[in-house]
Amino acid sequence: MKKASLNVPLTFIAASILMAAAPVFAEETTEEEHQLDTVTIEANAVVTDIQKIGSVSSRINNEDIEKNLTKNLDDLLRYEPGVEASQDSRFGISSINIRGLDGDRVRITVDGVTQADAYGPTSTYLRTGRNAVDMDSLESVDIIKGGDVIEGSGALGGVVKYKTKEPSSFLEPTGNDTYVSLKAGYKSASDEYSETITAANRTDKVESLLVLTNRDSHETENHSGDAGSDTTVGATRGSVDPSDNGSNNVLAKVQVQVNDTNKIGLVGEYFHSTSESVLFSESSSTDEHSSDDESVRRRIGFFHENTQANALYDRLKWQLDYQDTKTTNKTYRSATNRIVDRFYDEEATSLKADLVKQVNAHQIRYGFNYDEKSLENLNKNTVAGVTSASRFSPVADANILGLYVEDNWAVSDDLTLVPAIRYDNYKYTTKGDEYIESWGNNQNEAITAQLGFDFDLSANYTLFGKFGTGFRAPNLDELYYYFENSGTGYAYRIKPNPDLDPETSKFIETGIRTQNAYGSAELVAFYNDYKNFIEQVSLGASATYNSGEFTNENLNHVVIKGVEFKGNIDLSKSIHALGDGWVLNGAVAYTEGDNLEDDEPLDSISPLSAVVGLGYDAPSMQWGGKLNFIWAAGKDEKDITSSNHWLSTSDYNLVDLTAYYKPTDNLTINAGLFNLTDEKYSNWNDIRNITNTSTNLNRYTRTGRNYGVDVTLAF
C-alpha cells in the first residue's frame, strides 16, 4: 500500500478517538446520554423514531444536507465510509454502493415508494440510474447497512430511505402559520447555479407545502479542470466530455388533520433532468458523437394515518402511490448521419400498509405491499432518414406481493429481541411483438426471516446484532436482454435467461456500542454469504458467433465480510479548556469480497476508507464550521479480478472545510472548500467497469480543489 503525507495524521486522529473514548466510556454516569444516530422503522413509518434493533444505521438530516452544501447524491454520501455513489461523465450518478453491493442489490425508497430498477444492458447508448431525486426536497436520508428482511427484495447490501420534507418542519407546533424561504447556491465543480423556493402553510386543520428547485450546470470537472477548451477525441482524451445539464423538481403536499385520530394527505413529485454532451471520448476525427439525455420521474400519492386503537392496531398508515420513471438517451453520430434513440420506462402503482399493535411486552408490527408494474424498452435507429426499431427486452408486466410481521419484544430490562418474517411473491409476464420474442414468464417466491437483538451489558455498553436471510428478484434486463451482432469478424450474441432464480443471502453481524454524556462509539463485524448471484458468463465461441455467446447465470457462491467503526466525542465535556461547541467524530469501513466459484475477488468492493471530522458550533449558534479528513486506500491488484489488474488505484487523502454564518434569524450562509490540497484521485467504483485498456484513466479522476456557497433567506 502506498503511503501519502496525510496518512499519519489521519491514523493518529482516528486512534485518538478510540483512546479518548476508553476512559470516558468506562465511567458510569447519570448524566444525560448522548444518543447514536437513529433511523425510523420505515421512511414513512407510523411509529416514532426508534433505533433499528440489531442494525448498523445512520441518518443524514436536512441540517447535514444544508451544511455540507449537498447538491447531488455523491455529495450526500461523501462522509459515509462504506457507502458511496459512482458516476459517469455522460450518464451521471447512477448507483449507490453499500458494503460492496450496488445497483438493484441496494433497496431505495422515497417516502416508502420503491424506486425504479436500474436498466443498462449496454455500456453505451442506454443506461438508467436510480438518482431521480433532488436533494433540496429531502427532510432526511436513512441508511441501513446489510440485509433487512422487512424491506423485501433488493435489500441485500442495504437500504437507502429518502424522506421528503413535511409542512410541519417549517411551521410553529400549533396554530396558523406561514413560512417562505428563498435559497440560491453555486458549486464550482460543475459550475452549477441552483435556486429553491419553499413555502409552507397551516390554516386550521390543513397543512400545505411547495418546494420548487431549478439547477443549471456544466460537466463535473475532473482534476484536469475545464473540458470546454479541450477538443481531443478518442479513448486517450484526458478531460471529461463537455455537457450542459439542467434539472427541475417540484414537491407538493396537502395534509388534513381530520380529527384527533385521523390524518389524510396528498403528495406530488415531479423531477425532470436533461443533459446535452459532446462525446469527444467516443468520437474520432471523422465521426463526432454527441448526446441528448432526459430523465423524468412523476409521482402522485394518497395516504391515511389512523391512531384509533382497536383490537387490530394502535396505529395504521396506508398509502396508494402512482409513479412513472422514464429515461431517454439519444446519441448522434455525424459520419453516418445516425441517431440512436432509446428509452426505458417503468410505470408502477403501489398499495402499502403498516400497522403497529402493542401487546404487553411485544410491539408487533405487520403489513403488506402490492405493486403492479409495466416495463418497456424501445430502441430506434435512424440512418440517413430511415428509421428501424427494436427492443432489448420484451414488454413486461410485473406483479409483486409482500407480507411481513415483526415483533419488538422487550424480554427483560436488558434484552430486546426482534424476530421478523416476510413472504414475497413476484411474477414477470412478457409478450412478444414485431420487435422481439416474449421469451416466456418468470415467477418465484421467497420466505425470509431474521432475528435482531440488543443486550445491555451495563449502563454504558450494549451488545447488538442480527442474523437472517434475504433475497433479490432478477430484474428485466437480467432475465430478458437479447442482442445479436452478426458483423463479419466480430459476431456475438447475448442470450436471455428467463429461468434465473432470485439471489439469496445469509447474513450475520454483531457489534458493541457504547454511549454516555461524553459521546458514543460503535464497532461491528459482518459476514454475508450469497447464493445464486446473477452475473453475465461466457458460453464460448462458435462458427456463427466467433466472438462468443453470453448470458446471465446464477453463480453458486459469493462471500462479503468486513468491519466498521464509528464514534463521536463531545470535546467540550472531555477537555473543559476548549469551551462549548467542539465535537470530534470518525468512521472507518473495511470490506472484502470473493467470488468463490471463480476464485476471484469481487470487483464491486470499495477499498478501506475513513473519515475524521472536527466540528465547532458557537454557543450562540450563529456560526460554526467543520474540518473533514477523508482517506481511502488504493485498490491493489490482489483485490481485483485478474483481467482488471491494470485498473489498480493509489491511496488518496482529501481535506474539506465547511462553515455557516447566520447574521440574522432570517439569513443563513453556508460555504465550503473541498479537496483543499488539490489531491488527484480516482474513485474505484467509477473505473472498475472500464474494458478498453487504451482508455486514459486521467479522464476518470475526480474534481480538484473546488468550492460552493448557499444563501438562504427565510420569512
Automatic annotation (TrEMBL):
Its chief place of residence is: membrane
Write out the ranges of the annotated region (Disordered).
215-248
Q: Where in the cell is it found?
A: Cell outer membrane
User: GO molecular function, one example?
Assistant: heme transmembrane transporter activity
Membrane topology summary: Multi-pass membrane protein
Q: Does the keyword Nucleotide-binding apply?
A: no
Please list which residues make up the signal peptide.
1-26
One of the record's GO cellular component terms: cell outer membrane
- List the Pfam families: Plug, TonB_dep_Rec_b-barrel
Chain ranges of the TonB-dependent receptor-like beta-barrel domain: 256-676
UniProt keyword annotations, A-Z: Cell outer membrane, Membrane, Receptor, Signal, TonB box, Transmembrane, Transmembrane beta strand, Transport
Q: Spans of biased composition, class Basic and acidic residues?
A: 215-224
Which residue range or ranges hold the TonB-dependent receptor plug domain?
54-159
Concerning InterPro entries, the annotation shows: Beta-barrel_TonB, Beta-barrel_TonB_sf, Plug_dom, Plug_dom_sf, TonB-dep_rcpt-like, TonB_haem/Hb_rcpt, TonB_Hb/transfer/lactofer_rcpt
List, in alphabetical order, the GO biological process terms annotated in this UniProt record.
siderophore transmembrane transport
Family under the similarity heading: Belongs to the TonB-dependent receptor family. Hemoglobin/haptoglobin binding protein subfamily.
Q: What is this protein called?
A: TonB-denpendent receptor
Organism equals Marinomonas profundimaris
